[in-house]
Design goal:
Largest sheet: 7 strands, mixed
Number of helices: 9
CATH class of one domain: Alpha Beta
Shape: globular
CATH architecture of one domain: 3-Layer(aba) Sandwich
Mean pLDDT: 83
CATH topology of one domain: Rossmann fold
Distance between the termini: 77 Å
Low-confidence stretches: 1-25, 27-32
Strand content: 15-25%
């Protein structure tokens, strides 16, 4: 056999083996020897990031050459904007209302388990969104929609539908659980839907498009909860640690766009606790204990405390100013009567 051909075959075989090893490294099992310390945790994180970078190398190279490779065009004026081929246009500024109470509470929760090889499947997202949806419905009066194992078009379609339906007086909660990636070169984060490819970024969803989707939803109460790798990059526009001294009525009359992420870095394990990720488990426990009215900053503080006691991982909370967040605003979790 020609030496060049042999070399090419061996090179391709080595890449395939590297892809398989990278995919296996991306999902560590639960820690048999106990929770790792900060140094061990950081070493594991570095290994996982290197494995992901190797696995996604072709898509990442495409993004370096063309940073807009994953971007979705804005829907043309007059378009119904409920399909997933374009992004709903930014909503006009929400006018103040005479009523301090949300007209409607709507939650859309995306849980992605079933990824196609070589991207490893996940174990907890569908269980996470199913239980959280039940809590939002029974305890807080939300109308809930669960979107399972969704590709890019299906995710954008679901969020475009919210943009088309929501009114200024509504309270909207969005939840994403699945793979994600942070491109260090440009500090841009991405959701990785189930139909995403490691060879091209066209099936990925960028943080910039996520921000544009948030801007298209006119509800004055809007929060995105993201349980994915590097989801903390979504919270960097403006950190929120506590709500300014505004009354609930004042908060409900202004635009609040918040993001609660599972960490600044990626989660340690998909397994977590009781069939849930460690972040989702703590969020579930916090929501179960929430009574009356609780600002999102308070919910975040409780979740962060619970997570950080068990993992060297820090859930983040921030405002998306580019999507219209007003200074002093927050998302209010209010128990239904």
């Amino acid at each position: 056999m020609n030496r060049r051909l042999v070399s090419a075959v061996l090179f391709l075989a080595a890449l395939a083996a590297a892809d398989m090893a990278a995919a296996q490294m991306m999902r560590f099992p639960a820690f048999a020897g106990g929770i790792p310390g900060a140094a061990q945790f950081q070493a594991i994180q570095n290994q996982r990031h290197q494995a992901r970078t190797l696995l996604y190398r072709e898509a990442l190279e495409e993004l370096r050459k063309n940073p807009a490779a994953a971007d979705v065009p804005e829907c043309p004026a007059g378009h119904g904007s409920q399909d997933g081929g374009c992004l709903a246009r930014a909503a006009p500024a929400a006018a103040a209302s005479g009523s301090p109470q949300p007209r409607r509470r709507l939650a859309v929760l995306v849980g992605n388990n079933a990824y196609a090889a070589p991207i490893p499947s996940l174990e907890t997202p569908i269980a996470d969104v199913s239980q959280i949806a039940g809590l939002l419905q029974s305890r807080f009066g939300f109308e809930t929609r669960i979107v399972k194992d969704a590709g890019k078009t299906k995710i954008i379609e679901a969020l475009n539908r919210v943009a088309a339906e929501a009114k200024p007086d509504d309270s909207v909660l969005l939840f994403y659980a699945g793979h994600g990636y942070l491109l260090d070169d440009v500090n841009m984060g991405y959701w990785i839907p189930v139909d995403a490819s490691v060879k091209t970024a066209q099936g990925w969803i960028s943080n910039s498009d996520i921000s544009r989707l948030l801007a298209a939803i006119p509800a004055r109460q809007l929060i995105l909860v993201s349980d994915s790798c590097y989801s903390g990059s979504l919270t960097k526009e403006q950190k929120v640690t506590q709500t300014r001294a505004l009354t609930p009525e004042e908060i409900l009359r202004q635009r609040s766009v918040l993001v609660l992420s599972s960490g600044a870095d990626e989660p340690v394990s998909d397994e977590g606790k009781e069939g849930h990720s460690i972040f989702a488990w703590n969020l579930i426990k916090t929501l179960q204990a929430t009574g009356g009215l609780a600002p999102g900053a308070q919910v975040w503080s409780s979740v962060r405390s619970g997570v950080s006691k068990e993992y060297p991982q820090q859930p983040q909370y921030g405002a998306v100013v580019s999507a219209g967040h007003a200074e002093g605003g927050d998302f209010l979790f209010q128990k239904s009567e």
